[in-house]
Amino acid sequence: MMQTWRATDGDLDAALAALASLPSWPSVTLSRDHPAWREAYRISIEGWNDGVTMVAACDLVEAVRRILDGALGHPWHPAPPELRMMCNRVHVERRVPICARR
C-alpha cells in the first residue's frame, strides 16, 4: 500500500527545480546534471529503511520555501544534508501543535 503523505520522486524533482535558481557552492565540482547529484538528494529524504522515503511532501515543500527565504543563513544551493535537516525542522514544528492538543 502506497503512503500518499510521503514525498515522491516528482516532489523531489519539483523541489530541486525550485532550488535550481540558487548558486552552487564554489567548491562543488559535480554538475547538477550528473545522476549522482540527484541520487544524493533522493538518499537524503530516505528514512532508516533504505529506499523508503520518510519525508512528508508537505514538509519538503515548506523546507524549500524556507530555504528560498534565506533560512539557511547563506545564499547557496543547499547540500543534501541541509535539505534533510530543514525538512526535519519543519516536521518537528508542524508536529508540536498536534501533539500538544492530545
Quick gist of this model?
With 102 residues, this protein is an all-alpha fold.
What does this 3D model show about the protein?
The chain is built from 4 helices and no strands. The protein has 102 residues and is an all-alpha fold. It starts with 8 loop residues before the first helix and ends with a helix. The model has no long low-confidence stretch (mean pLDDT 84).
> What's the main sheet like?
none
Measure the end-to-end span.
Answer: 28 Å
* Secondary-structure-derived class: mainly alpha
Q: Report the helical percentage.
A: 40-55%
Number of helices: 4
Task: Give unreliable regions as ranges.
Answer: none
Write the layout of secondary structure elements.
Layout: H1 9-19, H2 35-44, H3 57-68, H4 80-100
Task: For this entry, give a set of tags.
single chain; 102 residues; mainly alpha; 4 helices; 0% strand
